[in-house]
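User: Batch of two.

Assistant: Item 1 of 2:
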Amino acid sequence: MARGFSEQELREIRQQLIDEAKEQYQKKGFKTGIKDVTDAIGIAPGSFYKFFSSKEELIFTILENEEASIKATLANEFQQVTSADEIASLLLRGIELASDNPFIELMLSPTQMSALSRKIPKEQFDRHMKQDQFSIEKILPIQNHPKKKTISSAIRAFFLLTMHKREIGMDEFQDTLHFYARALAHEILRED
């Protein structure tokens, strides 16, 4: 009779699934199957479901981890800013970090994001959005701002602009990002 996994093994295997899936998705795209990932780490495909309810949940977990890493970097950098120009520069730095991350860049394709958002449980997506808003409020100097929820949503929308480069126009895209970054920075510092 096969023995079950210990708690330590469960944590290690879960992390191996995340790491292997991230690597395979970056190399081969999201056509990579669960069996490809489980075979690579040496567990049975059925064991995958001890860790994730679906491939989409695994992908979303990777996306959340990548976002958390970028947010941690930005949080450290935001502690030293005071001017609108510095805030705008760091917002643009966030776009740069996301664009330099192959997994997030892959996820920011409108097709991939749309497919993923349709397949993950609504409660998981809602939890992510609440956590996302909270982390934006923590990173930026907006905890006591009267419009903090609106600013938080506007910053999320700012990052989603990267999904619409073609619709915005490639020639205008960078100027548009800079315009929005400056506008957001001024709104963040506005007192009323």
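Item 2 of 2:
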Amino acid sequence: MSAFSATSSPGRAATAVLYEDADTLAFLDITAVTPGHTLVIPKRHAADLWEISPDDAAAVMRTVHRLAARIRDVLNPDGLTLFQANRAAGWQDVFHLHVHLVPRATGDHLHRPWKADPVPLATLEPIRTLLALP
């Protein structure tokens, strides 16, 4: 594997590949928000989490896990944020499933996009009833 590998699709830019196997590709994000910001994608197209097969989803997570360890061991970040968005309303802007691994430093410029407040269990009960797996 070369440091920069052109993808096979016409019009695609070269990528800074970190890892590749039969099912996944991991590469540095060209719009990195922190040094080491990495993307992991499945090789078989799936627009989002609702379209990916369970086997491809597992392969992506294995690669995410492997790259997270590498980021920890080499870059020694204070933490790591994983991010995966689905559809436009979920903030997805590239419609091929991808997982962001963002190395974090205490006090860096990134912030949570929402404020979480405790919700009473009684408020959660109706949705829990709907979502609970049989």
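The longest strand covers residues 14-20.
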